């Protein structure tokens, strides 16, 4: 599975993208990023294309800030190369798109680690 790990922003600073990759082993750990460099979405910053071949549980989080300063994003839990849980983050809420809701505790640990506020969670 190929993932883009990126940190870039526009020249004006009004738009920004940040994507992170974590390995989860009884706690959150930043995954080592080795891959090929690719051009980022916005002008300032860098991006790396990572080929995820390791076995285990990984959390891929991608957040985008728009002109109005609102943050929205997507969080994927990848178990042994397949997506086990997919969630959206918007308006301080997490919503399950697909997958196993019992893996929410992994997402909660990552959101606490990143200090991202969450007011509501929809696991239906």
Q: What's the quick description here?
A:
The chain is mainly beta and 124 residues long. The protein contains one helix and ten strands; from the N terminus they run βββββββββαβ.
Describe the structure.
The protein is mainly beta and 124 residues long. The protein has one domain (2-122). The chain is 9% helix and 55% strand. It has one helix and ten strands. The protein has one helix at residues 104-114; strands spanning 2-9, 16-24, 28-30, 36-38, 44-51, 57-65, 71-79, 82-90, 93-99, 120-122. Strands 1, 2, 3, 4, 5, 6, 7, 8, 9 and 10 form a ten-stranded mixed beta sheet that branches. The model has no long low-confidence stretch (mean pLDDT 95).
Helix percentage range: under 10%
> Quick check: average pLDDT?
95
Give a count of the beta strands, DSSP E runs of length 2 or more.
10
Shape summary: globular
Number of domains: 1
Q: How far is the N terminus from the C terminus?
A: 27 Å
Order of helices and strands: EEEEEEEEEHE
Q: Assess the beta-strand content as a share of residues.
A: over 45%
Whole-angstrom Rg: 14 Å
The description of the largest β-sheet is:
10 strands, mixed
